Amino acid sequence: MKKSLSIVFFVSAIMMSMTLLSCGDTYKSIKRMQQMEEGVSSPTTKEELKEAIEKYDRRAIDLVTTQAQEGIWWKILGTRYLDEEMYSQAYECFQKAVSYYPDNANLYFYLAVCAGYIANSTIDWNVDAQGTTQEIKLRYLRVSEESYQRALAIDPKYYRAMYGIGVLYVFALEESDKAIPYLENFLSVQTKDTDGMFVLARAYYDTMLYEKAIAVYDRIIELKPSAQKVADAEANKKIVTDALYSN
Predict the structure, then answer these.
(1) How confident is the model at residue 234, as a pLDDT?
(2) Which candidate, 98, 58, 109, places its Cα nearest to that of 74?
């Protein structure tokens, strides 16, 4: 119930801010509002012009602040939807948030995550989407790829995006060769992340870099993250070893 109420609150807040901003959608309406509130009409003298500029600057700052707050509300609403696994709604919110914060790596990361989930859930697909099931799915996966890439372009050290795009390439797009540099960079930072190691080892296996895959599995076994992970690493290592010596 609390989460539902939170969503309603943020939706209401966003709708309120949109209503407030709707009166300023055009230059003329903003100008009329400023004239009424600031008493600025048609300045002619140098003194009147300076006074008008100062008053318009104050209104511009107020407008920018309001728009920035709206972007924050969209981001918060998106994370609420994401927590509820409502990926299509979350995706739309993050798209709106990006329009206010186009250089925010986190927002592109969230867009990538949502697009990846939507690709595997026909329930969340746009009803107007054209093409076969496979074509629509692939489009969402490519949106996920582009969003991860955008996040990394903004922040090259964003390790969560490195891991995310690595998983996307290996398990969704089946382009493991593209995953390798991202996962290697990820593990250069997260040196003991065995989940990342499993994905990298799989990428090495898919690209027939068997000896590298074996080395990664050995590293997982050495770290002993859990009995199950050690068992999985040992089983996978045997599969790779068999493939190595069968060629």
Answers:
(1) 98
(2) 98
Q: Is the dihedral of CA 221, 225, 228, 232 positive or negative?
A: negative
Instruction: Give the Cα separation of 200 and 217 in Å (integer).
Output: 10
Q: In terms of pLDDT, which residue wins out, 85 or 22?
A: 85
Q: Nearest 5 degrees, angle CA 173-CA 176-CA 181?
A: 120
Look-up of token digits 């998106």 = 78
Q: Which residue has the tokens 């867009």?
A: 111
Burial readout 101-114 (b: 16 or more C-beta within 10 A, e: otherwise)? beebbbbbbbbbbb
Q: Considering the entire predicted model, what is its pTM?
A: 0.73
Q: Please compute the mean of the pLDDT values over residues 24-47 and round it to a whole number.
A: 50
The three-state DSSP-derived secondary structure of the chain is: CHHHHHHHHHHHHHHHHHHHHHCCCCHHHHHHHHHHHHCCCCCCCHHHHHHHHHHHHHHHHHHHHHHHHHHHHHHHHHHHHHHCCCHHHHHHHHHHHHHHCCCCHHHHHHHHHHHHHHHCCHHHCCCCCCCCHHHHHHHHHHHHHHHHHHHHHHCCCCHHHHHHHHHHHHHHCCCHHHHHHHHHHHHHHCCCCHHHHHHHHHHHHHCCCHHHHHHHHHHHHHHCCCHHHHHHHHHHHHHHHHHHHHC
Predicted confidence at residue 129, as pLDDT, reads: 66
Non-local (6+) Cβ contacts of 57 within 8 A are none
In this prediction, residue 9 carries a pLDDT of 37
